[in-house]
Design brief:
heterodimer, A: about 290 residues, alpha/beta, 9-stranded mixed sheet, 15 strands, about 25% strand, globular, B: Rossmann fold, 5-stranded parallel sheet
Chain lengths: ~290, ~350
């Protein structure tokens, strides 16, 4: 089939919470967030790979990334370029700040209305919140079908997209019309590595904000041509009700945050008696290490 | 109006444990709020389940039965749920944090513009005072969950939107039938009035049971066994503990070479490098080739009968003894304390 597809991958820049080793702990035992690197959310990487595979099978298709975040999240678009994407948009605006999943999905949905993709592919969930809500919420806001927990976007059959889903106790294959929202599970294949040619070509892709910052750093070469400009969209660009964005568009509020305290200690020796093991397990449960 | 609705999931002709756990929790919450506990069940032949739901305290059962609804499908299931919530205006709606609940609940929350908190580990009723406006709220649902990779515990509230929605994972809440079932009512939902033909645009082609691929790297908890485990059969104990804790099983090279575990589970210099939140090493001596692949774990528990085994040096907790005794005790203790 020679179908040319416009594929948008939703991706998020997240703090790398998976690898909170001992050196990322502050003296009081809480996480030093500043010490955690900002990474491309892992399942969004799986989503990007599924998009690139569709593009491989359907020459002439385009893969675009859509990410929402502060200026530094432009890195997500560059990373997409390096791995074979054709571009992307950074949704960035102070008015987006404080958004919960609902306000986030509203902003993404407004941007997607402007982009008009055939297929939207996102990671199932982001590691900083693990909510898995944004994909389905975007689908609902655009009134599109959704296929969550995708392990493989298999291909077209009867003009519909066949997707294999990974569920708790097995797999399920479904056929969905397009446009549709797919969320990709971590069991899907890992993303291909960066391509050296793409890297050389796109490492100077910049947003206008980054360009302007560069002007003050005269030691950096300012050579990004217009064609490498990463678009930045704000509320003014995507439209919509201002009250639906950011904090005011977020029904959920954080009432309280408790840091989990990891004690730095010497090896504690225990015997195999039930009492000692029971004490250990109780401690692990109360510290939310397990359970 | 203002009641609690639990979404009831079925799998293979049975009500999922998580739904019964939520009903059990729902009884407590409904008691504190002096409201009714209600259940929504959708499927092709779900009438058979009403008695069990009464056993767990559902005072009203909303029953949507339709041949086309044999398996979960996002669009018709969410159409029914959204329609019911619009009519009944529950103050709280709870879903299992399963592949179904995590597909359905966000769709519903988006349509109702209501907040949803995923994977809560605790639900409580409490009050709230808005710091800025000074506005006071009574009897909100505190949705308590780990966030940030489990490094913080957050309490989330939805002060102004209803229903207050949350998902909870299986096994987090305890499941307890009532001594005397409630005498509740069944209200049949006329599905034909709600679902449209276009709600069936996504078709299920095939469903089958397929074993999950091994995913050691992505697991926050790893139970690893070494040559000291002794046999492939003894490794079953590790799998048992792993399934109780929601963990993956790893192995040292010696254990893989001895045929106790698959190569895909090998951790260490020649295997995978992992940094889970919790690493339990059983029957592993702690050679550098192994520890190089796991010593960055946030917490390490070692189990080895040799008090001088090097693994004990890098462990936060070193248990000296026989893993065949220790692991069953860990399972027993977890089951006793986790609910």
């Amino acid at each position: 089939m020679t179908k040319k597809l416009k594929i948008v991958v939703l991706a998020k820049q997240v703090p790398d919470t998976r690898n909170v080793g001992k050196n990322a702990m502050k003296e009081d035992g809480t996480v030093n967030r500043a010490a955690l690197p900002a990474i491309f959310n892992p399942e969004d990487m799986n989503a990007l790979e599924q998009a690139l595979r569709l593009k491989d099978r359907h020459p002439g298709s385009v893969v675009l990334l859509l990410t929402m975040g502060p200026a530094r999240a432009a890195e997500i678009i560059r990373e997409g370029y390096y791995r074979g994407a054709d571009g992307g948009v950074l949704l960035t605006d102070r008015k987006f700040a404080g958004a919960d999943t609902l306000a986030t999905s509203y902003a993404l949905a407004m941007a997607l209305k402007k982009m008009q993709p055939d297929i939207i592919i996102a990671g199932r969930q982001a590691i900083d919140g693990d909510t898995a809500q944004v994909g389905p919420q975007v689908a609902e806001k655009l009134n599109l079908p959704q296929v969550t927990y995708a392990e493989e976007i298999v291909g077209f059959e009867k003009n519909k997209l066949v997707v294999k889903r990974r569920l708790e106790r097995g797999v399920e294959s479904v056929r969905t019309p397009l446009p549709a929202v797919n969320t990709v599970h971590a069991t899907a294949p890992e993303c291909r590595p960066r391509n050296a040619k793409q890297l050389m070509r796109f490492k100077h892709a910049r947003t206008l904000t980054e360009e302007q910052d560069n002007e003050h750093n005269s030691y950096l070469p300012v050579i990004s041509p217009e064609s490498l400009r990463i678009p930045e969209w704000g509320v003014a660009d995507v439209g919509g009700e201002e009250s639906h964005y950011g904090l005011s568009g977020s029904p959920t509020k954080v009432k309280k945050i408790e840091n989990i305290v990891f004690q730095a200690k010497e090896s504690k020796r225990l015997t195999s008696s039930f009492e000692e093991i029971d004490m250990l397990m109780t401690e692990l449960i109360s510290s939310h290490t397990i359970g | 109006m203002d009641n609690i609705i639990i979404y009831i999931e079925t799998e293979g002709g049975k009500i999922s444990d998580v739904s019964l756990e939520l009903l059990t929790k729902g009884r407590t919450l409904a008691g504190e709020l002096s409201c009714k506990l209600e259940a929504l069940i959708i499927g092709s032949s779900v009438e058979q389940h009403t008695q069990e739901l009464f056993n767990y305290g559902a005072e009203t059962i909303y029953l949507a039965q339709d041949k086309r609804l044999e398996h979960y499908l996002t669009l018709p299931y969410s159409a029914i749920t959204i329609d019911l919530f619009k009519k009944e205006r529950p103050q709280i709606a709870l879903f299992g944090a399963t592949s179904v609940g995590r597909d359905l609940a966000p769709r519903v929350s988006s349509a109702l513009v209501s907040g949803l908190t995923a994977d809560c580990t605790s639900l409580e009723i409490g009050n709230h005072k808005e710091a800025k406006s000074g506005k006071e709220y009574q009897n909100l649902l505190y949705q308590i969950r780990p966030a940030f990779g489990g490094n913080i515990i957050a309490t989330i509230i939805n002060p102004d939107c209803r229903p207050q929605m949350a998902t909870v994972r299986e096994g987090v809440m305890k499941k307890e039938p009532l001594a005397t079932p409630v005498k509740g009512v069944v209200k049949v939902i006329e599905t034909k009035d709600i679902i449209k033909t276009e709600d069936f645009v996504v078709e299920i082609i095939e469903r089958h049971i397929e074993e999950r691929k091994i995913d050691i790297k992505g697991s926050p908890i790893i139970i690893a066994g070494g040559f000291g485990v002794g046999s492939k059969e003894n490794f079953n104990l590790l799998y048992e503990l792993a399934s109780v804790l929601g963990a993956e099983v790893g192995a040292s090279r010696a254990a893989v070479d001895a045929g106790f575990a698959e190569g895909a589970r090998q951790i260490g210099q020649t295997g995978i490098t992992v940094r889970p939140k919790l690493y339990i090493a059983a029957g592993i001596s702690g050679q550098i080739q192994h520890t190089a692949g796991m010593d960055q774990s946030a917490m390490i528990i070692s189990i080895n009968s040799d008090p001088n085994a090097p693994i004990h040096q890098i462990a936060d907790y070193a248990i000296i003894g026989d893993m065949n005794e220790i692991i069953p005790r860990m399972i027993k203790s977890y089951k006793l304390n986790s609910k």
